[in-house]
Design brief:
It contains 3 helices and 2 strands. It is mostly helical.
Length: about 120
């Protein structure tokens, strides 16, 4: 179902109901030197809403640039393959075994006692 269309229609109906109930409600809108008298409430609220959207609009464009930069950086990264990972793991195992041998030898471990021969 077109949920966006249904949501939009519901919003328009609610806005129309709001306007209908507030046609008689009026207020004075003052811009420092000029005062507009008897302005309907729904017009002042609609103007405030539109100004808020316009104020937030530049921030939404800034997010797109950041997302594009992150996407470009991810494209430039070369993924590692399983073959490379396996070769690195083998090298690590070999180096660990060598380290164990060196640590167990008596040259590097002077505290280790030699078995006495009879």
């Amino acid at each position: 179902m077109p949920w966006k269309l249904i949501f939009f229609i519901i919003c328009i109906v609610l806005a129309t109901i709001f306007v209908g109930f507030n046609l008689e409600n009026r207020c004075d809108v003052s811009f420092v030197f000029i005062t507009f008298k008897q302005v309907p409430i729904f017009l002042s609220l609609t103007a405030a809403f539109v100004l808020g959207i316009l104020a937030a609009l530049p921030f939404s464009f800034g997010q797109r640039k950041k997302k594009k930069l992150v996407a470009e950086k991810q494209k430039n990264v070369v993924p590692t393959t399983d073959v490379k990972l396996k070769s690195v793991e083998k090298k690590n195992k070999v180096s660990e075994e060598k380290n164990k041998e060196v640590l167990s030898s008596k040259e590097t471990n002077p505290l280790k006692e030699e078995p006495k021969e009879k």
